[in-house]
Amino acid sequence: YAKFQLTDPSGSGQPIEVAYIKDQKGRLLGFDSFTKRENEGGDKKKAEEEDTGVDESESTTTSPSLANAANAGECTFHIVPNETTSIVAYAIYRGEKKENEDGGSSREDFLYHTREIPLPGAQK
């Protein structure tokens, strides 16, 4: 699996919408959405744990860039043996909603991606 920050790494604090992993040929290997829902009981922490799969009491993380486990979400993906030689991870973060002059609104989301990551032992 790959870990992603649940808030925009640029510091805007905007939440992640989706994360996905593609291989060297652009094939989708994994996808996850991170839309938060408020439950009717008002237990926001519990609702966030259910949505992200991250328990705030857990403090371990596999990525040094994700120092706070409560701010990390996971995206599971599958590697195709003898075919997958590298991957690229993508994350889309929600943009701020802006009102238009015509009374409508729009939002510009932000896409981040890694460089191509070669897989150890994979043959090209």
Can you describe this structure?
It is a single chain. With 124 residues, the protein is mainly beta. The chain is built from one helix and nine strands. Strands 2, 3, 5, 8 and 9 form a five-stranded antiparallel sheet that branches. A hairpin with a 5-residue loop joins strand 6 and strand 7. It is elongated. The relative contact order is 0.26.
Overall body shape: elongated
How much beta, percentage-wise?
Answer: 25-35%
SSE ordering: EEEHEEEEEE
The biggest beta sheet is recorded as: 5 strands, antiparallel
Distance between the termini: 22 Å
Extract low-pLDDT stretches: 37-67
The percent of residues in helical segments reads: under 10%
| DSSP strand count | 9
In brief, what are we looking at here?
Helices cover 7% and strands 34% of the residues. The chain has one helix and nine strands. Strands 2, 3, 5, 8 and 9 form a five-stranded antiparallel β-sheet that branches. A two-stranded antiparallel sheet has the order 1-4.
Supply database-style keywords.
1 helix; mainly beta; elongated; five-stranded antiparallel sheet; 7% helix; two-stranded antiparallel ribbon; 124 residues
Tell me the layout of helices and strands:
Blueprint: E1 2-5, E2 16-23, E3 28-33, H1 44-52, E4 72-75, E5 86-93, E6 97-99, E7 105-107, E8 110-113, E9 117-118
Antiparallel strand pairs: 1-4, 2-3, 2-5, 5-8, 5-9, 6-7
